[in-house]
Automatic annotation (TrEMBL):
Residues 23-48 are annotated as: Disordered. InterPro entries: PPR_rpt, THA8L-like, TPR-like_helical_dom_sf. The keyword Transit peptide applies. This is Pentacotripeptide-repeat region of PRORP domain-containing protein. It comes from Setaria viridis. Pfam families: PPR_2. NCBIfam families: PPR (TIGR00756).
Amino acid sequence: MATPRPHLARLLLHLRRRPRALPLPFSPSSSSAHGPHPGPSLWPPPAPLAPPAGAWGRAFHDGRPRGPLWRSKKLIGKEALFAIQGLKRFKGDEEKQADFVRRHVARLLKADKLAVLGELERQEEVDLAVKMFRIIQKEDWYKPDIYIYKDLIIALAKCKKMEEAMVIWGNMRDENLFPDSQTYAEVIRGFLRYGSPSDAMNIYEDMKKSPDPPEELPFRVLLKGLLPHPLLRNRVKQDFEELFPERHIYDPPEEIFGMR
């Protein structure tokens, strides 16, 4: 039976579109008694083409950042980084440090000065951070900001620089600014670590006068730190139960601290 002409045309088109088998490459080890494998010789393989001059330099780099660096969630420019390094380099020499501040730090822009302050706090260079804060206070654009005070006070409290922290605290209150619960908690924790529960209670009494609504964090910090001082702890516990009646307080056994 003869194949219809349309079917024959489709069959021929299908055969033409089938991929042809590529010839196997010739290698010296593939020779046999009947001679090498038929087909064009592809051994040795051709060398890859070299990229044009400068192509790799444009497409790739060594991974180091270019331009300003990202530090502490703030964009720190080269001048700010130079100022930080200089302040740390001349930390022990007041005369050279004052000259460096006059030549390089004082000429920084507002954003750079704030970035330097934040980076010094992050590196726990709190003495330099206080100096930088005093420089910022003398600027014409300076306005009292609770967040600047908060970051500086928390950095000082974490480094157990409680005397310096209370000086900054007094400056903050003189400018009619009130700290938030996190600042109260960190200062209270700092005094408890410093071994001064009476100063921690003074901060607690100041917190009770704050116009902001009370939060649990400072109370729980005090309740944990005042375990060796049951009389002070009972005062804080009563206030906590009045303000947060639905919350619970863990009271460890009294024999742990020798209280029977």
